[in-house]
Amino acid sequence: MITSTRRVSPDKSEVRIAFSLDSTQDRNDVAELSPNFPDLEQRLQPVPPCTALRESVHVYREHCKMAREFHQVKHDIAMLEERKRKLLAELVEDDQVAIEIARLEEEFDLLTEENRNLASIHTERAQQLESLWPTDQTGPEDS
C-alpha cells in the first residue's frame, strides 16, 4: 500500500492519494465509487477510506449508503411537501366552493319562499277579481 498526503496550498484541505497493488474486490470497488453528495454539508461528506484496512472500506461504504438514503429521504420529503401544498390549495378551493354552494342554497330558499308568496298572492287576487265580476256577465278575458 502506497499512501501520499499533500496540501496543494495553505488554504486548501489536504489531498490523500492511496493505492495498493493488492487486487481484492473490496478495495477496487472503493476507487470506482467516489460518490459526490451535494446536499450533504462538507463536514458530513464521506471521507475516502484507507484501502489497506477492510474495516475502513466497510465504514466508508456504510457512510455512502447512509448518504444515499439521506438524499432519498430528503427527496421524498420534498415530494410530500409539494403534495401537501397542492392538497392545501385544493382544500382552500373546496372551502370556497362550499361557501358559494351555501350562498346559492340560501338564495334558492329565499327565491322559493318568494315564489310561494307571489303564487299565493296571485291566487288571492284571481279570486278577488272573480268575485268582483258578476256571474252572469263575461269576465275580462272575453272583452
Describe this entry's structure for a reader:
The longest helix is centred in the middle third of the chain and has 79 residues, at 54-132. The radius of gyration is 42 Å and the shape is rod-shaped. The model has no long low-confidence stretch (mean pLDDT 83). The relative contact order is 0.06. The termini are far apart. It has 2 helices and 2 strands; from the N terminus they run ββαα. It has a two-stranded antiparallel sheet. With 143 residues, the chain is mainly alpha-helical.
Task: Summarize the entry for a quick read.
With 143 residues, this protein is mainly alpha-helical. It has two helices and two strands; from the N terminus they run ββαα.
Structural class: mainly alpha
Order of helices and strands: EEHH
What's the oligomerization state?
A: single chain
Strand percentage:
5-15%
Question: Cα distance, first to last residue?
Answer: 123 Å
The coarse silhouette is rod-shaped
Q: From the alpha-carbon coordinates, what is the Rg to the nearest angstrom?
A: 42 Å
Helix fraction by DSSP (H/I, runs of at least 4): 55-70%
Main sheet: strands, sense, barrel: 2 strands, antiparallel
- β-strand number: 2
Physical arrangement of strands within the biggest beta sheet: 1-2
Please state the average pLDDT score. Answer: 83
The stretches of 5 or more residues where confidence is low (pLDDT under 50) are: none
Helix tally equals: 2
